[in-house]
Design the sequence.
């Protein structure tokens, strides 16, 4: 605040317009303002990377579907690939509740999602992952099934009780199609 008040003294350069002879020294106050702002930024670490900032960047950088649900199975976090694949659009800065994923039941989009939560509840306190790279099915907005490789982790509170699950899913439709084509080609080659 002091830096901004200090910067107001640059008005000294306007005084000659009113007929008073004053040396144009406004640049001195701009320099002082810059020094005070720099000192405030470095002293109070205003641009330090925090876990909150890092977590947003991490979520945004994941190319696969990422969904986090609470203990009721409602989606609380979804990244852009999840929006694009499951509902056909990204949030693009809109209120996520208006777009259609946040607050929806995970079971709308993931086959056997309720079983995932039951596995999380039955897991030991030290377990963090309940499913590792398993082929599964998810459903997009039109109800089509998409084959994915899915991993599911448990979100725990301070007392190590499960409070949600974190699902990452990689679309493997192209891979499945490639495998089918290879198998078909191998079969044709054997018959030849």
Sequence:
């Amino acid at each position: 605040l002091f830096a901004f008040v200090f910067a107001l003294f640059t008005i000294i350069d306007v005084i000659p317009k009113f007929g008073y002879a004053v040396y144009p020294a406004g640049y001195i106050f701009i320099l002082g303002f810059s020094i005070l702002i720099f000192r405030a930024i470095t002293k109070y670490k205003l641009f330090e990377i925090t876990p909150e900032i890092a977590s947003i960047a991490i979520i945004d950088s994941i190319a696969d579907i990422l969904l986090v649900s609470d203990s009721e199975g409602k989606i609380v976090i979804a990244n852009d690939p999840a929006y694009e694949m499951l509902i056909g659009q990204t949030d693009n800065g809109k209120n996520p509740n208006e777009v259609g994923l946040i607050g929806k039941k995970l079971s709308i989009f993931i086959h056997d999602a309720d079983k995932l939560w039951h596995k999380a509840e039955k897991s030991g306190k030290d377990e963090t992952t309940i499913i590792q790279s398993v082929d599964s099915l998810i459903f997009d907005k039109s109800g089509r099934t998409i084959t994915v490789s899915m991993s599911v982790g448990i979100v725990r509170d301070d007392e190590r009780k499960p409070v949600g699950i974190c699902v990452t899913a990689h679309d493997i439709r192209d891979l499945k199609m490639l495998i089918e084509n290879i198998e078909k080609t191998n079969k044709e080659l054997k018959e030849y």
Q: What stands out?
A: The helical segments are 2-7, 26-44, 51-61, 80-87, 96-99, 113-122, 173-191. The beta strands are 65-70, 75-78, 129-139, 145-156, 162-171. Residues 26-44 form the longest helix (19 residues). The chain has seven helices and five strands.
